[in-house]
Amino acid sequence: MRNVKFENGEYYHIYNRGTDKRNIFGDKGDIWRFIKGILIFNRKNPVGSIREELNGRRIDRDLVPVNYGDLIELSGELVEIICLCLNPNHYHLLIRQVSDGGISKFMHKLGSGYTTYFNEKNKRSGSLFQGTFKAVHVESNEQLLYVSGYINLNDRVHEIGGEDKALVFSSWSEYCGENKVLNMCKKDIILGQFDNINDYKKFAKEVAESARENKKMKREESTIDLLE
């Protein structure tokens, strides 16, 4: 049983990773397929497959990002996306529930839809994610701001570089005004608390640096424990 109870109007940090820590995104096509799932499955009315939603036009391998309004006419959202980060083997979402049962419905459709796509593409079967998605209730405004910085720059927290860097997608560029194609995040609750974007950038970078240092300390403490 999940300990967190989802309530309308509340914010939650949602995350999960691949089973056995495996990669869940193998190329940019996978990333855009997951994003399109976020866009299409986030509505109250029942929805079939992504292919059905686009009148049979195959988009699974399409690398071109699409605008929210180009895909669907909203019939009422289940959740609001505040920010997100997709890393090679895990993802983070900061979302606000706006419809009864919204998070559970949205995450079920998103996870099962992407797993079906990934398994068909890679000729595999079974679970892709490590159990049910994890959820943390955001209980204060300070926590809300911190989580936004942690997620927007999560690839820096994990020091993802090299070839894996190409398999990272974050809402950071949208927050910075650099990605004007995908406008999928409700940013005002975060950016409205800063005088300008540079102040938020500074704040988020400090959060990422602090989180990165904390991870290093925990790794070092674990190593010491093993040696003792």
Automatic annotation (TrEMBL):
<dbReference type="GO" id="GO:0003677">
    <property type="term" value="F:DNA binding"/>
</dbReference>
<dbReference type="GO" id="GO:0004803">
    <property type="term" value="F:transposase activity"/>
</dbReference>
<protein>
    <recommendedName>
        <fullName>Transposase IS200-like domain-containing protein</fullName>
    </recommendedName>
</protein>
<dbReference type="InterPro" id="IPR002686">
    <property type="entry name" value="Transposase_17"/>
</dbReference>
<dbReference type="Pfam" id="PF01797">
    <property type="entry name" value="Y1_Tnp"/>
</dbReference>
<feature type="domain" description="Transposase IS200-like">
    <location>
        <begin position="7"/>
        <end position="154"/>
    </location>
</feature>
<dbReference type="InterPro" id="IPR036515">
    <property type="entry name" value="Transposase_17_sf"/>
</dbReference>
<dbReference type="GO" id="GO:0006313">
    <property type="term" value="P:DNA transposition"/>
</dbReference>
